[in-house]
Amino acid sequence: MSRIDGFVGRRDLLKLVGAGGAGLAATAAGGVLWTAQEAISPQAAAAEYQSNPQPVSPEEALKRLVEGNKRFVQQRRQNPNQSIARLQLVAKGQYPFAAMLSCADSRVPSEIVFDQGLGDLFVVRLAGNVVSPTSLGSLEFATAVLGAQLIVVMGHERCGAVAAAVKGDPLPGRIGTFVEDIKPALAKVKGKSGDPVENAVVANVQYQVELLQETSVMLAQLIQEGKLKIVGCRYDLDAGEITIVT
Ligand SMILES: [Zn+2]
């Protein structure tokens, strides 16, 4: 299957979408965007996955992230894959080895805290690291099309979005939208001893991981075929360290 700048060629995508499939929009740059969540069948997605020339297994991907975070914590970052040569290589196409659903918090930049570089991570960042139709679609794209075999859902210590959900006060504008997406996670830790926000941070990660597994046919199939793992972790703001929680 051909690719344009790391994306599936438009003709191939049309084939995947098939007759009666959902519409798609071509951008001025020639890229393509899906307008429907399940436009590609899991079978077609799996076939596309095969085109990744050097897939990185879920275990190897997690190992790379854990080691990168260790380097970051110990202040011996290698800043890999940030040369001009790497820039020029990934300009031709991307095969990120991991995808992430992380908080938009300015203190949790994925490439820095995992010591990675250009083309390594496909990162979706939203306040509260919540699963929404758009974040889910991005993660399906990263895995089924670009071939990442690991999704990391990363919450973090003292997350303002989670704290707002715990507090439960009304919020102006659309700030409340992502807070609402966190609230179902709170039921699991209601009445639990300890810091309510910290309990909720972990519960939210676990809840969002479950949502990914349960709401996406594409992700579920990749998991079943052994081509995807979803891992939840918590980031410690003080130490810069990640802990796997699910
Ligand atoms: Zn946050």
Q: Which key terms come to mind for this protein?
A:
246 residues; two-stranded antiparallel ribbon; transmembrane; disordered N terminus; 5-stranded mixed sheet; binds zinc ion; Carbonic_anhydrase; alpha/beta
**Which stretches of 5+ consecutive residues score pLDDT under 50?**
1-38
Distance between the termini: 35 Å
* Strand content bin: 15-25%
Shape estimate? globular
Give helix % range: 40-55%
Give a short account of the largest sheet. Answer: 5 strands, mixed
Task: Tell me the number of helical segments per DSSP (H or I, 4 or more residues long).
Answer: 10
Report the radius of gyration as a whole number of Å. Answer: 18 Å
What does this structure look like?
- The strands form three sheets. A five-stranded mixed sheet has the order 6-5-7-8-9, sandwiched between helices. It has a two-stranded antiparallel sheet with strand order 1-2.
- 43% of the residues lie in helices and 16% in strands.
- Helix 8 (175-186) packs across helix 9 (196-215).
- It contains ten helices and nine strands.
- The protein is globular and about 50 Å long.
- The protein has 246 residues and is an alpha/beta fold.
- The site of zinc ion (ZN) has 6 residues, from helix 7.
- The site of zinc ion has 6 residues, from helix 7.
Q: Helices and strands in order, then pairings?
A:
Layout: E1 3-4, E2 7-8, H1 10-17, E3 24-26, E4 32-34, H2 42-49, H3 58-73, H4 84-91, E5 98-102, H5 110-113, E6 121-125, H6 133-145, E7 150-156, H7 160-167, H8 175-186, H9 196-215, H10 217-224, E8 229-236, E9 241-244
Parallel strand pairs: 5-6, 5-7, 7-8
Antiparallel strand pairs: 1-2, 3-4, 8-9
The structure holds zinc ion.
